[in-house]
Design a protein that fits this description.
With 325 residues, this protein is an alpha/beta fold. It is 41% helix and 16% strand. It contains ten helices and ten strands. It has a seven-stranded mixed beta sheet, with helices on both faces. Strands 1-2-3 form a three-stranded antiparallel beta sheet, with no helix packed on it.
Length: 325
C-alpha cells in the first residue's frame, strides 16, 4: 500500500508544481489536452511543446482579481467586454455573466427573456465592468461600419470583442457549401476581414468558430435541414481561411472537444429512451447537464461552461499569475 500512496502523493505534487497556462490557449495551435495512460484526459491540464501546464477553475473571486489587475494603474476606468452575433454567442455571454459577482449589477432589460433578439447591457460600478451583447446575426454593411467606427474611436471601443456570425447565414443560404449562396457568405467575410483586423490591432478581437450541432434527429422539416455539423464545418473552414490571413484576429476553436462529447452524450441519452414525455422531466431533474439535448443548434451548458473557463484562463491568467493557486 505504501508505494501506491507514495505514487499518488508524487502525482499530486507534480500537478501542483505545474506552471499556469499562459497565452494562446483558445486557438488550438499551441496546446492540446494531456492524455493519461488509461486514455482519459484531465480537464484542467494542457500540453504544449514546452510541457504540461495547468488551468485555473475560475470563480467569482478569481474573476474579481483578474478585473482589478486589468485595471491596475488606470483608476476609474470601466472595462468593456462585448459579445456580438447570434444566439450561440448569447449563450457564451450568459456563461460569463453568471460567473460575475452580483455586487451591484444593473441589467437592461431588467428581465431578459429566454429567446431575446435584442441588445443586452449589464454594468457593475463596484467591479468597473460593462458586459454587452449585441444581436448582430448577419455580416452586413451596418456591422462593418460599426467595427470601422470602433477602430478609429477610442472612447467607443470595447476592451474585448467576442463575435461570430454563421448560423443565420446557413438558415438563409443553400444547404450545400458549393452553391452560390455559400460563396456570398465567403464574399461577406472577405469584406469584413480587413476592417476587423484593423480593429484587432488596437483591441482584442476573438472570432468563435461554430460548434458542431446535435444531428441525430433526421429530417423533421425543421431548421436542422439547413444547419448541421458537416455544413458548419465548411463555414468554419471559410472563416479560418479568410480571417486567418490577419494574425491580429484570434480564432476560438479549442472547445470543439466538449461540444462533440456533449453531442455524443445526447445520442446515448436518446438511444436509452430518455426522450419520451414521461421520463424526460425526471431525468433532467437528476441529470441537469443534459437539459439542452432537444435543442440541436445550441450546445448544452455542460460543455459551454468548460468553454467559458478556457476563455477566462486565456484572458486572465497573465494578469494574476502570483494570485492563483
Amino acid at each position: 500500500m505504501a508505494p501506491a500512496n507514495d505514487f499518488r502523493r508524487a502525482n499530486l505534487f507534480a500537478e501542483n508544481e505545474l506552471p499556469l497556462c499562459i497565452g494562446n490557449l483558445i486557438d488550438e495551435r499551441e496546446y492540446h489536452y494531456a492524455k493519461e495512460t488509461k486514455g482519459s484526459y484531465k480537464s484542467n491540464r494542457l500540453m504544449s511543446d514546452g510541457g504540461a501546464c495547468k488551468l485555473v477553475q475560475y470563480t467569482a473571486s478569481h474573476i474579481t482579481a483578474c478585473l482589478d489587475a486589468m485595471k491596475e494603474g488606470q483608476p476609474g476606468q470601466m472595462l468593456h467586454f462585448l459579445f456580438m452575433g447570434d444566439s450561440r454567442i448569447r449563450q457564451q455571454y450568459f456563461n460569463i455573466v453568471r460567473l460575475i459577482p452580483d455586487f451591484d449589477k444593473i441589467s437592461q432589460p431588467t428581465i431578459i427573456p429566454n429567446a431575446y433578439h435584442e441588445n443586452i447591457e449589464i454594468t457593475s460600478q463596484v467591479l468597473g465592468l460593462r458586459l454587452s451583447f449585441k444581436w448582430l446575426p448577419l455580416i452586413d454593411d451596418d456591422l462593418i461600419e460599426t467595427i470601422r467606427r470602433w477602430a478609429i474611436n477610442e472612447t467607443e471601443r470595447p476592451h474585448l470583442i467576442f463575435l461570430s456570425m454563421s448560423v443565420h447565414h446557413m438558415f438563409r443560404y443553400a444547404v450545400f457549401p458549393h452553391d452560390n449562396d455559400f460563396l456570398a457568405y465567403e464574399d461577406e467575410l472577405v469584406a469584413l476581414a480587413p476592417v476587423l483586423a484593423h480593429l484587432a490591432n488596437v483591441t482584442q478581437v476573438i472570432w468563435l468558430n461554430q460548434y458542431p450541432s446535435v444531428d441525430f434527429y433526421g429530417n423533421i422539416t425543421d431548421p436542422n435541414t439547413s444547419v448541421f455539423s458537416e455544413k458548419i464545418h465548411f463555414f468554419n473552414i471559410a472563416a479560418r481561411r479568410i480571417l486567418g490571413n490577419y494574425p491580429s484576429i484570434r480564432m476560438y476553436d479549442s472547445s470543439n472537444l466538449w461540444a462533440v462529447e456533449y453531442s455524443r452524450s445526447c445520442f446515448v441519452f436518446q438511444r436509452e429512451g430518455k426522450f419520451n414525455a414521461t421520463s424526460i422531466k425526471s431525468y433532467i431533474i437528476s441529470n441537469n447537464i443534459y437539459v439542452s439535448c432537444k435543442d440541436f443548434v445550441h450546445t448544452g451548458y455542460s460543455a459551454l461552461s468548460q468553454a467559458t473557463q478556457l476563455l477566462l484562463n486565456d484572458i486572465c491568467n497573465e494578469h494574476q499569475v502570483s494570485d492563483v493557486t
